[in-house]
Structures are given as C-alpha cells and as structure tokens.
Batch of 4 targets.
Target 1
Amino acid sequence: MPKTRVQKEEIVQKLKEKFSQARSVVFADYKGLSMKHLSDLRNKLSEVDSEFTITKNTLLNKANPEIKLEGPTATLFSYDDEISPIKLLVKALKDAALGKVKSGFLGQDLLDEAKILQLATLPSKDELRAKTVGILVAPIQGIVSVLQGNLRNLVYALNQIKLQRGGDAQASS
C-alpha cells in the first residue's frame, strides 16, 4: 500500500534526525542479498549501536540534499563507534559476494566507496585502546623490571657478604 504524503514527511523528518545523530552513515547497494542475509546483518549491526534500514532514495535525498542516490539503497546509521559497523557491513557484503558500498558520511565529511573501504581496514576503537594501553604500560613494565633486578642484585650481594662472614646461606631470620 502506498504511503501518504504525511507518512512520507514523517519518514523524512525521522531520517533528518538520524542523519544529525549518526556519527557515520554508509549507503550500500543491497541487490542480491536475501532477506535472511539482511536480517542477520541488521541483528549484528544493532549489537554495535547502529541501524541498517532500506528507504526510498527520493526520501533519503529529501532528508539530505547533499546525496544523490540511484538503485536499491540500504543505509547504515552508526551512533556510537564510527568504524566497527562499517567493518561489519563491508565484511558481510564481501562474504556474500553481493552488494557494495556506494558512499557515506563520516561526521560531516562526504566519503566515496574507496574511502569507506579504507575505513573498514582500520582497527576498531577497542583495538586502538588496547594498543595505546600496551604502549603506555611498556615503559612502566621496563622500570619495574629494572628495579626488581636491582633488588635481586642487592639481596644476592647481601647474601654473599653473609656467607663470607661465616653465616649460613640457608638460614632464615
């Protein structure tokens, strides 16, 4: 059943809100993907605080005049992490060997297909945080190791002095 003008205006308003709230947006051609693939993809993407919707291009174009889309289009709105949902989408499309990304936005910057595919190769926020923590902890671990070495050497020297003065190395005080 066709949507009324009022319903379409409501959809455009909701899309405008989604565009303003999303940290990244990707438009993808979903042609060839089965409903099961789309449903599985939606479920995976919802787990990383993102939304995958299929909307008419005319409504998308009204909601954001910067874009001009053609052909079947699904839209990925990422609300928390900008990169992880893009990685999931690109992987799912690659695994299915169907569909492709068209364009998108990272913040306010317009992205083409090549830039989106490049973003999909970046590590996730959690991976970057782990690497950063590892980099920050490494010098501290080195200092602890050096200080422990000095303490071990001091204990060894004191033990040697004790042995030279006739003490028992096995005796504990």
Target 2
Amino acid sequence: MTVEIGLTVASPASIEAGKLSRHFGRFDILFFLICTIVGVDTIASVASTGGEAFTWMVIFALLFFVPQALLFAELGTAFPQEGGPYLWTRLAFGHLVGAINNFMYWVTNPVWLGGVLAISAVTAFEVFFNGGKVFATPVVYVIAIIFIWVGVLAAVLSFKVGKWITTAGAFARFALLGWFTVSVGLYAAQHGIHGLGAGSFGLSTGGFVGVIGVLLFNYVGFELPSSAGEEMKDPAKHVPFAIARSTIFAFLLYAVPILGILLVLPANAVTNFGGFVDAIQKVFTVYGGAAGFVGGIGAILFVICLLTSGVTWIMGSDRSLAVSGYDGAAPRFLGVINARFGTPVRVNIFSGIVATIVFILAQVITGGSTARFFGAVLGVTISTTLISYLLIYPALWKLRLSHPDTVRPFRMPWMKGLTIILMILLAISVLQLIAPGAPLNWFGSDFRPDGWKASEAGLYLLTELIPVLIFIVIGVLFWWRGKATRIANAAANASAEVKAVPAAKK
C-alpha cells in the first residue's frame, strides 16, 4: 500500500499547458503545412536565377525535402508535446542550447513578416491598384502596418477559429498557382515560348551557391504544426498523414508555376523582387480587356497567400517561444497561455511589435528602396532560419539514444545516413549564405550576391554575422532569465515523484 505525502505542487509548465484545447485535426494540419511551406514570395527568387535553379530544386526535393519530411514525421509522433522544435532541442541538448536555438527559430518570423511579406504585399497593391506607381511613404506605412497587425490578430485566435484562416490560405494557393499555371499555358499558345532552352537547365558551382539558400528555405517547415502538439486531436496518426500529402502538394505548387515561368517568359521578365507579381500581370494579359479585373483578383489572392504564410509561422514559432518561457528557457512573462483563446497572446503582441520595428528600420536604412529592402531582409531571414535547423535535425539522432523506450508510431528509415545528408546540405547552405564562394573563391564574381562589390566582402560578412551573434547573446539572456522557472518546475516534479511512497511493513 501507499500513503500520500502532502499535496503536489503545480509547476508553471502544467499550469500553462492546462489552458490548451485539442482543435487541430488531420486536414487542419495538412492545410496548415501547405501554408507553411508554399511561400509565394520566393517563387520569383528561384525563377530569376534561371533553369539551373529548377534542376537544383528537383535534386534538393529528393536529397533534402523528402528526408526532412521523414525526420519530422518521427519527431512529431514520438514527442507530440507543445513546443515541438524547442522541446526536441531542449530534450536532446539541454535548456541553454534550447534557449539559444529557439530564439533564433522564433525571431526570423516577425522579421520575415515585417520585412519580406509586408513589402511584397505593398508592391502587389502598387502594381495592380496604383498603376505600377510607388505609393507615397505614409501610404506604404499604413498598408504594411495593417498587414502586420491583421496577421498578428489572426494568430491570437484559438485554433478552433484560426485553423480556418490557414485553410483559406491553402485554397488561395491552389487557386492562385493553378490559375497562374493555366494562364501561362494560354500565354504560350498566343505568344509562343520565349523562355529558356533545354541547355539552360545544366548545373554549375556558381548556380549551386546562388540557389541553395533560398531552395532549402522554401523546403523547411514540416515541424511547425508540432509547436501545437498538445492541440492536435491525434498526432500519432495525423502528423504522418499531413506530412506525406503536403510534401507532394508543396513540390507541385512550386515546380509547375516556376517551370511555366522559365519556359514561357523571357529571362528579363522575371526579377528577384516583385518578379512573381510582374509575371502574373504579364500572363494575365491573355484575358484582354478583362485583364485589369482579373489581375486585381490575382493580387488579392497573392496578398492572402502572403498573409497566411506569416500567420502560420507566427502561430507556430510563437507557441514554441511561449513553451520555452514556461519551461525555463525564456522569461516567464512570455510563457503565458491566454485562458480565453488558448494562445500565447503576449508573444503574439511581442511578434507584432518586432515586425513593425523591423519594417520601419528597414525602410529608413534602405531609403525606401523596395528592392534593397527585400534583398537585405530576405538574406537575414534565410540564414538565421537555416542556422536554427543545425540543432533541430540532430535532435532525432540524440533522442534515439537518450530516449530509447519512447514509443515511436513512425520511425525514420535510414536515419543516420539521411540525417548526415541533411546536415551536410544545411551546413553548406549556411556557409554560402555567410561567406559566398568559400572555400573555392570567397566573394568572387560568380558567387557574391547581386549589388555587392568585391571590395565589400568584409562588410557583407559583418551584415551576416552580427545579427547571428546578437541573437545568440539574447538567447543566453533568455536562458538566464528562465532560471527561476526551471527551479520551480524541478521542485514541482520532485514533489510529484514523492507524493506517494511505500508504507513500511509491520
């Protein structure tokens, strides 16, 4: 028999987790993943680099996209607790590593929302609703700030309501990219094929360096729904289902429009910034006098796709940051789940503030040049995002060793070999983002980003390294601020372990 010893002390983690509800079903996760992975803001970035980018996209789909899907199918079913990527990293490597990595994982999303996505939305409105003319500065700020805060407010809603926003975003992608692909076919029938020939799809070292970052960035995100693991109805069954199907949908939604752009439009018709919007405007001329009206609908769908990309990533990464807050890897103030909505409202508001500041600062620094704005923010977003995966991927290998008895409804086949391939590709990508061309020809003409001079190699290196170092320092500070929460959780866990002890035999 046993006797009870006192009362169990409630931990910060158990208090906050108790506010969560299960609203996230099989198809909700699928549509969430489609919104997460398929970003319309980078389609032109891939197409603008030519036919070689498409070839690399197919190669990376086999070597990176599919293995990554298998990896997260195992992690998401074996460890389905709230906080997904943060929890896996912390379980594998401890609170300090978890704090640093999770801050980097989180911070890229408000930067992306307030940078790339917001300015892309402004550009779409300029092209389709302002005759291609640049808005006055006050109008740019109004549109961008409304865009940012509509996204934040959507993330505040509970998954019971918010999941319909991501579902709408998935169908907006089906509509926009499907419609665009059909229009490209009609454009080719009317004007002929003026795009790239077969020889343009060959491979080169310079092309590899130029596209690996953006392609890998396009292919990440399978882990994001697991940030809401305790809000899923049945993660063991639904996570593999959603990952498998979203892999197919995402590849097709990227590949078909990009191939159409490359084959039909002249190479100079697609640029890195604003290229997809320009491509939509060009191919929609097949509708004659109705092109303006049709283009307006396309622009609205495009902005919905942008907005829901930001919403899904904010929903997921904000949950991971909140979990780190009540788990002891961030300030406790951030680790609060709102009892009414079941969402991390404080972190949501924090994300909105950061996104707004990023937009304002980038506008000031770049002097309102949207192309420079886009390139600068996209570079920081991609590099910081991919760096965070350097510790998320090997977490599976470590957890296989440290938690061998954990039930795994799905097991990643060839785990060691595929994880090594993922890490090699990721490490090469991070190196090339920070030091283009290294070690072959650091900052050579075939490798350095557009708009940079050979004499600016040191400056470029600083622009990539300084944000990463700042984020690492903030991550350490977050870990330090979480000390009291770690102590409280440990005390509560110890209390739970000793609440019942064997009674002494007479």
Target 3
Amino acid sequence: MPLKIIIYNIIVLIVLIVNSCTVSWNKAIRYGDIKQEEFYETLDIEIKNNLVFVPVQINGITYRFLFDTGAMFSISKEIQEELKFKVVSKGNLVDSDKNRSKVSYVRVDDLQIGKINFENQTAFVANFKANPILECMEIDGIVGSNLMRHCIWTVDQQNQKLSFGTYLKPEYIKDAEQVPFKTDNQYDILLNIEIGKATLKNIKLDYGSNGPLSISKSNWDVLKENDIIQNSIVERGIKNSGIFGKPVKISRETTFTDSLKMNDFYIENVQIRTGTSRLFGNKILSKYTVSIDYKNKKLFFQKNDSISTTNWTYGFKVGYNSSKGIVINSVTENSKAFEEGILTNMKVAKIDSLNFELGNDFCDYVDFMQDPPEVLYIQLIDSVGEKVDFNIQRTDLKKIFLN
C-alpha cells in the first residue's frame, strides 16, 4: 500500500477516534440524574452583591457555587485541573455580554447539594478569574439550568433559604401568583412579559443577573413606538459582567414602568434598561419567594414584604482595568457625578478609607460596597495626573430620571 494512502488512513482513524469520544454540547447537557427517588431538602444560602450562593460538595470538599438559572452547570478550571473529569464535548459558549469563547464540557460523576446526590451532570469548565468581580466573589462554579431541571426549587431570599425536591410544599402554592414558562435546549426559563400594549417574548429569568429587567434595543424601540417609553436616562462607558470578563462598550438607557404583567401577575414600579441580553434579573426576583417547577413549567411568586430594593446610584460605576488598575467604568448622564466632571476611564486613587496606592485592591472595593455610605468620598486622577477629590451623595435613580 502506498505511503500516502497509509498516512491518509491513519489520519481518518484518529479523527474517528477523537469524534467518538465527544458528543455535541446540546446532547451532553441532557446527561445526568438524581440518586434519590423522592426527597425534599432545605439549606442555607448566602446573598452577596444581590446574587445567591449555594454550598456544593464534590469529592467531600465544599465549594461556593452561584445559583444561576440563566447559565449551564459549571465548574472552575481549578476544580477540573484537580479532579480531571472526563471531557464529553467541546464547543463555543456565549456569555451575558455576548462574548464568545471555546470551552470544554465535562461529566461530573457525583456532587451533593445538601444530602442529595446529582450524578453524571454535564458542566462547562470556566475561568472565573477572568472577570474581576467574579474573582473577588471566589466562585467555584455555577448551579445551572441543566442541573436544576431535575427538581422543583424554592428560593427564599428573605430568610436566606433554598429548598428543592421532587414536590412543592403547599405553603408555596397557597396565595401565590402563577406564571407559565417555556424552556429552550439549554433549559433556560423563558417568559412572556406585557408592558402596556406591547408583549416582550422569551425574556430569560436569570438569578445570575443582579440587575432589573434588561431588554434588547429592538424591544426598547417597540416600547417607544407604542409610547410606553417617553423619557430615559443614559449610562455611558464600559461593562464586563459576563463570565469571560471582556469589556463591552455601553450606551445603556434606563426608564421606569408603572407595572408589567406576566399572565395575571402584575409587578409595579419596575426599572427597565437596554442590555446585550434580555434578562429578568434578581433586582426584581429578590422581592419574592419564587418556586420553579420545571416539570409543569410554572413559577410561583409570593411577596417578601421585608425586602425592598432601591434604585440608588452614585452616578458612576467602578471597574478594574488590567493596564490602569481601578478606574471609572461608566457614568450616568445628568447625575451629580456627571455634573461635577467625573469621566469614564479616570483612575481611582482612593474610595473612603480604601487607598489603592497603598495596598488596597479591587476586591476590597467589592466588599466595601456591600454596605455603601450615603455620601461617598472618592479621589480620582485626571488626564494630566492631578488628584481630584469628590464627595458624591447617594441618589435615587428615579430622581435623576424625573429631572
């Protein structure tokens, strides 16, 4: 047999062997099961930065996972490097900022949430240190939609409890507002939302977003055409909220609606903003105890009277830039910060007692903002290297909107 044919046959054989070891990601995420047949489990959760965190055990070690209905189950690259789970697929993943990156999908043989064993679940491997905020939150993984689909979940942020099982307790159904949903091939929860005479379809319910209702520019234009949106305020700069941490330019508009409707359920005084993804975020969800019934595709909402979310702002957002360090990421027009001359990309020297030139870092700032003061002292460095001091009053975003 000629050498060329032998080499060709070897190459074909290698390709066949490689392809036989992996499957498409949308087939791989259908793997998995639960060991217990009937169960109900309740555990404590942590709320930080308006996000929900859950303890997860793998190989007897407890990790800190983000509870995120808007993403797939995921483990950190550090866990994968340590435990070396079998790779079952490879592909591209798009994060909430529409950044695309190649990822590996692995099969996690066994993990525990509470006392419940989830077996052979497919997870994508993520570098959570790529996003500065996620790195500061020390995330080890994501409890995502393809894992959640096995159970009925109740998220009670008022009492910081997460319940899940094969059934839903009657107290979470009684007097609850019911909302139907559908799912896609990633098991994302998709909602239809009515605002005025307009219907916004396939909005993703996303506990992994700490924002309000985010909609696409085309959705925004529909609301404007129907005179539902008449006024707005604009935030300009960059953001890097997606898993991959890549900065994205924004010119984000924000407005408020008196109410929105899902099925027969009305939610009043809702902030709406434009975004790269269409998300129903935890700024709204945290006001309710929410039960998610994947089998019957229903949500149950019960009002949490002791939780009130505010729309306050300093008029700017701080981020981390690999070349300049801690900087102003974005500024809201017509805010006090905007009027006093705070600009995007200005380097931050100090915030309150934090001195970034003398050892404090971005994670110190993230922790500091868990209990932000009414008036924030910030020292910035302008374009000519001069240090400029500001004292910015915390302001209700709606006041800026109404001005």
Target 4
Amino acid sequence: MRSFDFAPLYRASVGFDQIADMMDRVFANEAPQPSYPPYNIEKTDENAYRISIAVAGFTDADLSVEVKENALVVAARKADDEKERVYLHRGIATRAFERRFTLADHVRVTGATHADGMLHIDLVREMPEALKPRRIEIASGKAAEKDVVDAKTVN
C-alpha cells in the first residue's frame, strides 16, 4: 500500500483539502477497476470535454445518463428479449454496467448523443465570475485622502 504525506500541500495552499481526500480514496482503493465498457475522455476545447463510451448493442432506451452529487453516472441494462435467440458464438457483450465519473467543481454536462454504437457525453467547465482572475489596483504610497462630508447639527 502506498502512503503519501500531504502536509507540504497544506502548508503552501488553501482549499485543496478535497483534492487530498480524493487522492487518499484513490490510493486506498487498490481493487482493479472494471474495464467494460471501454471509453475515451478527450479535451475538445480549453473548457470543453467529451466522454465517449462504446455501447454496441444497446438502444437509447437501454441507456441512462445522470448527474448526482458531482458524479456522472452512466448505466445500461439490456431488455430481456435475448431468451428467444440462440447464439452459436456471442462476442458482443451487452451485459449491464454502471460507470461513474467524478466531476470537478463547475463542470456541467451539456448533452449526450448515441450514434453508431458510441455514447458521447459533452461537458463544459464554466468558471463563475468570482473565480476568474481580476486585476487589483495598487494605491500609491501616500496615505489615501478620504472625502469629508460637511454635516450640520440638527437640534
């Protein structure tokens, strides 16, 4: 088992505790991850991504795409009409699956398409204005003069 010390990260940064917790979970889970169905994650633009999952043999009705608590959950369950078929060789797996992807903050699913045996899920990272870089004006070394308002006393 691997052990990492995140103390230097905590000394030099603020707000990265979620990343350290996620790293701890990843390294603690030494179980092999399922490889079915195969998928790709690609960066299509500076703030856009696409997940492509091979779902040969599944229809739109068999597939489910949901976002729950910063996780994208893709699941498929084939209808039970396979009992009527007799296979001499069955090489196309259509077994049920559930695949989870952890989404970073401010990543939103914009759509999903199913064509030619591939399920494409498009995502975009939308940074709020408060998190975008902004320039801070630096005041000169002189003490800033404050505006004085003349006030009249009221009896």
